[in-house]
Amino acid sequence: MAVLVAVLVAAGAVLRVLQARGPEAVALPGQLQKAAEKRLVGTAVDDTALRNEPGYRRNLAEQFSSVTPENVMKWAVLEPVRGKRDWAAADRLVDFAAEHDQAVRGHTLVWFSQNPPWVEALEGDELLQVVREHIRTTMERYAGRIRTWDVVNEPLEDDGTRRPSVFQRELGDGWVEDAFRTARVADGEAKLYLNEIGAEAPGPKSDALYALVRELLGRGVPIDGVGFQAHLNRRGVPDGFRANLERFAALGVDVAITEADVALKLPADAAALRVQARVYRGAVKDCLAIPRCRSITFWGFTDRHSWIPATQPGRGAATLLDAELRPKPAYRAVLKALRGRG
Ligand code: XIL
C-alpha cells in the first residue's frame, strides 16, 4: 500500500512538472522571420515562460529575428534597491538572443511606469544624475549586444501634453532631450528610439509627438527612430496609420511597430478571429509599405502569455498563436503579408 501511494505521489509530481512546462511547439506553416526578408520580426518575451517552457523557447527561436524584454529591463526590475542592480533576467534574454542570432530591442530606459519606489521619491538634480547613471550603466553593459533602445517611452498624454511623471515633475520638459543626449554618449552605435502608445493615427497625441520629434531633431538631439506600439483591437488599424508612419519617416528617422497586439472580447469566436487577422494584416502591410519601417514587434506571440487579460479584464486572445501554441488565423495572415502575398 505504502509503495503504491509513493508511486502515485511520484507520478503526480512528474505530471505537474510536465504541465508546468506548458505545451510543446506544434509545427507551424512557416517562419515569420524568414518571410520578412529585410525587416526584423520581433516579439516581447515573458521571462517566466522563457525559463520554464521548451515549446515557448522553440517558437521564440524559430519564428523571430528580434526580441524585446516584456518587463525585465524596466528600472524596477534592474535596480529595485538603489545601487543593487540585478541583471540576471535581462542577461538571460540577451544570451538567448545571441545564441539564436536575434536582435534585441532594449526596453525601456526612461518611462513613467514600473520605476522603483526610491526613484519616484528623488528630486531635482539628484534625480537627473541618477537617470543619467541609469542610462549609462544599462547601455554600456549591453553595448554591441543591444543595438536598438527605447530610450524614452510614452512621454505624452492622449491630448498631446506631457504625461505626468517623476521626470516631468522634477526636471521639466528637458528630460526627454537629456535622456537622448546621455544615451548617445553611452553607446554611440545604438539606434535610439522614442516609443509611444496610441499615436498610430494623426490626432492630438500623434501631432504633438510629431512636433516634439521635429523640434528635437532641429536642435540636433540624437533621435534615430520613433516606435508605434500598435496595441489594437477589433476596431482595426486607426485610419491614417500608414500616412502617419510616412510623415515621421520624412523627418529623417526610422519608424517601427514595437508592441502590436489585437485584443478581443472573450470568448473569441471564429468571426472575431477573422477580424483580428485582418487587423494584424493591415498593420503589417502599413509597415511594409514604408521603407524606413525597420521592424514589426508583437507584444507576445501566444495567448498563454499576454498582458491583455490582466490589464483588460474580459479581453484577451490578442496574439498570433493560441494558448497551446497553435497558429490562429492572425498568424497565417501575418505570414502571408510578410511574404508579400497578403
Ligand atoms: C506591460 C507588460 O506587458 C506587463 O506585463 C506589465 O505588467 C506592464 O507593462 N506599453 C509598454 C510596455 O511600453 O512596456 C507595457 O508592457 C505595455 C504598454
Please provide a brief summary of the model:
With 342 residues, this protein is an alpha/beta fold.
Write the layout of secondary structure elements.
Elements: H1 2-21, H2 32-35, E1 40-45, H3 47-52, H4 54-63, E2 66-69, H5 75-78, H6 88-99, E3 103-111, H7 117-120, H8 124-141, E4 148-153, H9 166-171, H10 175-186, E5 191-196, H11 204-218, E6 225-228, E7 231-233, H12 241-249, E8 254-265, H13 270-288, E9 293-298, H14 308-311, E10 315-316, H15 329-338
Parallel strand pairs: 1-2, 1-9, 2-3, 3-4, 4-5, 5-6, 6-8, 7-8, 8-9
Antiparallel strand pairs: 8-10
Bound molecules: (3S,4R)-3-hydroxy-2-oxopiperidin-4-yl beta-D-xylopyranoside.
Low-confidence region ranges: none
CATH topology: TIM Barrel
Largest sheet: 8 strands, parallel, barrel
Overall pLDDT level: 95
Helix content: 40-55%
Secondary-structure element string: HHEHHEHHEHHEHHEHEEHEHEHEH
Instruction: Give the overall silhouette.
Output: globular
Bound molecules: (3S,4R)-3-hydroxy-2-oxopiperidin-4-yl beta-D-xylopyranoside
Structure summary, number of beta strands: 10
Q: Would you state the CATH class? A: Alpha Beta
Approximate strand percentage: 15-25%
Count the DSSP helices: 15
Radius of gyration: 21 Å
How far from one another are the termini? 62 Å
Label the CATH architecture. Alpha-Beta Barrel
Oligomer: single chain
Q: Please state how the strands of the largest beta sheet are arranged side by side.
A: 1-2-3-4-5-6-8-9
Structural class: alpha/beta
Name of the CATH homologous superfamily? Glycosidases
